[in-house]
Amino acid sequence: MSGGLDALFEGRKELLTAPEVAQLLGLTKQGIYNWLRDGVIPGYKIGATWFIVRDELKATLQAGANSPKKHENEDNEGS
Length: 79
Known about the structure:
Layout: H1 2-9, E1 15-17, H2 18-25, H3 29-38, E2 44-46, E3 49-53, H4 54-63
Helix pairs in contact: 1-4, 2-3
């Protein structure tokens, strides 16, 4: 899987904006902003602008850390 990510990120600048990440991953800008806000992907907010470090994003995707996680309260539903 690493080879695909290497190709995806090849030639990309070190700092990316949310719209650039959305285009790169084929997702909506709002989806990327949600991921940033929820801590699904790493990013840094300066003023109103989010910045994503290319290598941190790549490592997160490689680790599968952006996969949906089961919320703790879902275990107790229906009890």
